[in-house]
């Protein structure tokens, strides 16, 4: 988490689903160590863009480079290993406790295979103990310390969203993709998650790409904003610039205005 | 269940006192030890029939634990478990027997398990391509393939009539009747008594390894696959590799179960390893509650012992005919199938955790989630 933060260069990405153009020659540049917001009305292609970045969708053409490494031909787990972690718009959680989920995030940082684990070989036991410590630290960092051993099914919605964030952090990523991290949260929970995201950047130099409909939060947190509409990039710049942009205003007219929660 | 390796290692400041930890772990440990002693004592009190029932149950439990790892934990439906059991059983018989290389039986046993794992590994590229019900259908093909090979490859399998099973020998000790009969504490130790202990040791080893797996890094990756392959991949789990690893490991357990079944039967025929057997194993893990080792064992005992016991007491049961009798009454095997069919429905409707879940709830009811008062946010 200490090395120079990477830059993300997305060039000319196109994704098509059975005729529907979800992303249309999209460019996106994320500076190392910045918080970059990706906004747009529903169905604009924001989640699809994340799916391309994390290797879940392969684009028709275009290139995604993280620190110079081309990602579009890599499997998702390889991209994760390069330091790209993400959360999902709809919480995707493994059954089990918070600890189980966070330890899943530690997968790439541990080695114990089937044989060593089955036989409880000393190095596997040691490793599991160390990973558990690390997971607990990350739980504390994200305010989940007291819920560490709670089954995730029993957690309220806001806490489960935070488990997803913590699980992504367990990868110790260089770049973090957050898909609507505060959706469905109340004001206090939003403020708290926003605080955590800011802290991640300042303390660990993490690069964050954020998809969010809460404009207040976007304006407060983001250094830079990219706006998508119907799969096309229609604007980009600082939050203030984007707010003034006529294209952006037009895109949001009719759609449930994100401005209202600002 | 999945938390023993972290128990007592609570967050600093909330360290659980030793006594509290003991109170939590104590009863389960004590019950386990008592069960172990009891199981070891059985051959001194039970007759051959009950030992057979136990032996088949243990073998089934090993197989069910394997299937549970594949279908219950990693979420890959398999109707082909009977095939991997057959590979283990026939593999052992051929490797240790005549015709065949006639290897020392212990070596043949290990190789048969590996062979079964290899079969699982060879199948896994297919498993990597199809999901869900389609995977179920693809694995079904394995059963028919297996039947075909078992009946037609007479040189290896003995064809329709099968083969007799060479007894296991480990370091000069034979797991069969010997001529100067072995008598322990006044009890003659025949094949059943000896195999009983073999079964216990193997089952214990399988429990140990499977529970470690489920609680460790591989188990977490496998259950992540079941819950969402996309999320698992994004967390760094190589999906294809873990899907096939689940097949290999599950097949190895199935192979071991196959060897034990062969030893218990002392003769194997293709008929036994049919689709019905695959379905029996699915029934075991569903009744036992998907995902847990204890549940798979409980389900295996239930599904295996029920028809045998019903057959034994058929004359005392209403509506059930003695085995082989003609008439309108149904046979014990059939009756048992109806019963466990009903059990599956009951489990699905009322006990989502299966037998394993029922037991877990009974044993440790006071484990409320750590309900800390929610911290106030500014
Ligand atoms: N797997 C898929 N198959 C077919 N169409 C898809 C798929 N995923 C997304 N789409 C379509 O692509 C378009 C963009 O979807 P996407 O989820 O990226 O939007 P979004 O910007 O994240 O919207 P929201 O704010 O509602 O989350 C939508 O029209 C959606 O229906
Ligand atoms: Mg979305």
From TrEMBL, chain A:
Record-linked PROSITE patterns: ABC_TRANSPORTER_2 (PS50893)
GO molecular function annotation: ATP binding
Domain ABC transporter: residue ranges: 8-255
Protein's UniProt keywords contain S-adenosyl-L-methionine: no
Keywords noted in UniProt: ATP-binding, Nucleotide-binding, Transport
Tagged with keyword ATP-binding: yes
The protein's name in its UniProt record: ABC transporter ATP-binding protein
UniProt organism field: Streptomyces gossypii
Source taxonomy: Bacteria, Bacillati, Actinomycetota, Actinomycetes, Kitasatosporales
């Amino acid at each position: 988490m200490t090395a120079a933060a990477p830059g993300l260069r997305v060039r000319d990405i196109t994704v098509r689903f059975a005729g529907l153009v979800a992303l249309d020659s999209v460019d996106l540049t994320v500076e190392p160590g910045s918080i970059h917001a990706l906004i747009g009305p529903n169905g604009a292609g924001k989640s699809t863009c994340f799916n391309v970045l994390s290797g879940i969708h392969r684009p028709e053409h275009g290139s995604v480079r993280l620190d110079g490494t081309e990602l579009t031909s890599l499997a998702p787990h390889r991209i994760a290993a390069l330091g790209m972690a993400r959360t999902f718009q709809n919480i995707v959680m493994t059954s089990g406790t918070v600890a189980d989920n966070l330890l899943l995030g530690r997968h790439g940082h541990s080695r114990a295979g089937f044989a060593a684990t089955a036989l409880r070989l000393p190095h596997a036991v040691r490793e599991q103990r160390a990973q558990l410590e690390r997971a607990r630290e990350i739980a504390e960092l994200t305010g989940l310390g007291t819920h560490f051993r709670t089954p995730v099914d029993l957690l309220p919605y806001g806490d489960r969203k935070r488990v997803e964030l913590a699980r992504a952090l367990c990868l110790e990523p260089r770049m973090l993709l957050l898909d609507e991290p505060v959706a469905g949260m109340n004001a206090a929970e939003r403020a708290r998650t926003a605080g955590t995201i800011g802290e991640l950047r300042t303390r660990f130099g993490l690069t964050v790409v954020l998809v969010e409909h809460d404009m207040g939060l976007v304006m407060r947190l983001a250094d830079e904003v990219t706006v998508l509409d119907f799969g096309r990039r229609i604007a980009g710049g600082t939050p203030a610039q984007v707010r003034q942009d006529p294209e952006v205003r037009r895109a949001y007219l009719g759609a449930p205005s994100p401005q209202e929660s600002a | 269940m999945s938390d023993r390796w972290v128990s007592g290692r609570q967050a600093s400041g909330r360290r659980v006192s030793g006594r509290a930890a003991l109170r939590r772990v104590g009863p389960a440990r004590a019950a386990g030890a008592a069960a172990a002693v009891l199981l070891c004592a059985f051959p001194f009190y039970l007759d051959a029939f009950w030992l057979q029932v136990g032996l088949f149950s243990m073998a089934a439990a090993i197989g069910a634990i394997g299937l549970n790892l594949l279908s219950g934990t990693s979420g890959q439906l398999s109707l082909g478990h009977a095939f991997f059991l057959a590979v283990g059983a026939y593999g052992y018989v051929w490797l240790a027997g005549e015709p065949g290389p006639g290897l020392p039986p212990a070596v043949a046993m290990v190789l048969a398990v590996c062979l079964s794992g290899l079969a699982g590994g060879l199948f896994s590229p297919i498993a990597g391509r199809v999901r869900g019900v389609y995977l179920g259908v693809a694995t079904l093909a394995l059963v028919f393939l297996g039947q075909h090979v078992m009946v037609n490859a007479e040189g290896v399998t003995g064809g329709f009539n099968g083969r007799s099973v060479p007894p296991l020998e480990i370091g000069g000790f034979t797991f069969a009747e010997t001529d100067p009969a072995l008598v322990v504490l006044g009890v003659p130790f025949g094949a059943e008594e000896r195999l009983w202990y073999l079964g216990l040791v193997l089952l214990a080893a399988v429990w140990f390894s499977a529970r470690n797996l489920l609680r460790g890094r591989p188990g977490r990756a496998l259950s992540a696959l079941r819950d969402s392959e996309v999320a698992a991949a994004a967390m760094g789990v190589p999906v294809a590799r873990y899907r096939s690893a689940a097949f290999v490991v599950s097949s190895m357990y199935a192979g071991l179960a196959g060897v034990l079944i062969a030893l218990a039967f002392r003769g194997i025929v293709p008929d036994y390893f049919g689709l019905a057997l695959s379905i029996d194993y699915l029934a075991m893990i569903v009744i036992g509650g998907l995902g847990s080792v204890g549940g798979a064992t409980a389900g295996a005992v239930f599904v295996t012992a029920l028809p045998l016991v019903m057959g034994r007491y058929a004359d005392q049961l209403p509506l059930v005919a003695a085995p082989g009798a003609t008439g309108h009454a149904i046979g014990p095997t059939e009756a048992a199938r109806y019963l466990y069919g009903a059990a599956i429905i009951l489990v699905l409707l009322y006990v989502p955790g299966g037998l394993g879940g029922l037991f877990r709830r009974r044993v440790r009811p006071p484990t409320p989630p750590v309900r800390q008062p929610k911290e106030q946010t500014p």
